[in-house]
Amino acid sequence: QKEVEQNSGPLSVPEGAIASLNCTYSDRGSQSFFWYRQYSGKSPELIMFIYSNGDKEDGRFTAQLNKASQYVSLLIRDSQPSDSATYLCAPEEDTGRRALTFGSGTRLQVQP
Amino acid sequence: GAGVSQSPSNKVTEKGKDVELRCDPISGHTALYWYRQSLGQGLEFLIYFQGNSAPDKSGLPSDRFSAERTGGSVSTLTIQRTQQEDSAVYLCASRGGRGETQYFGPGTRLLVL
User: Which pLDDT does position A88 carry in this prediction?
Assistant: First the structure.
C-alpha cells in the first residue's frame, strides 16, 4: 500500500511570511513529485513538479526533494491570503500508468 | 486552449439508479485518468486510459463501476445501482504536453440519496 503523509493542519501563517509544507512518501520507486493546490469546492490545480534531488524554484514557490529520505516539501514565500487553500502532495507511480498517489493535504491559512 | 471539461457538474440521484459521468480531455492528450475524492479523504485512483489501449481498471472499487473511452478522446464513467457510499467528487485528469503533468477537470459532484 503506497502511502503519502502530510500534516493536515491547518497551518496558519501571517501574510508575507514563509509557509513550509512537508510530505513523506513510501514508494521508493517514485521519480516525479507534484504539488497541487485545491481551493474549497474546486478541483486540484498544478503548482509545480520536481524530479531531481534538491531545490526547484518557480516564482514564490520552491519545491525541495530528498529521495533518500523520501521527503518532499513546498515553500511559499511572501504568503498571500489568496494562497489559503489545501496543498496536495502527489508522487507519481513508477509504472506505465503513472498514476498519482495523493496525500490528504495540508490546509494553509494565511492571515491578513 | 480549453482545459479538461466534465459534465454534469452536479448530480443527485436515488440509491439504486445508474449514473453516467462524462470527461472531455485536453485536445491531444493521450492519457486519461479518473479519480474519486470522498468527503475528508484524499483522491484515489480509479481507472487509466492510454490512447485506444485496454484500460487499467485496477482502482475501480466494485464491478458496479465501469468506464469507456471512445475514439481515444471522450470518456464516460458509469456507476450502476448507486449506493450512498458512492457519493463523492469524481475527477478526470488528462496528461500530455512537455511536462507530462496531469491536469484536472472541474469534477462532478455526485450525491446518492
Answer: 97
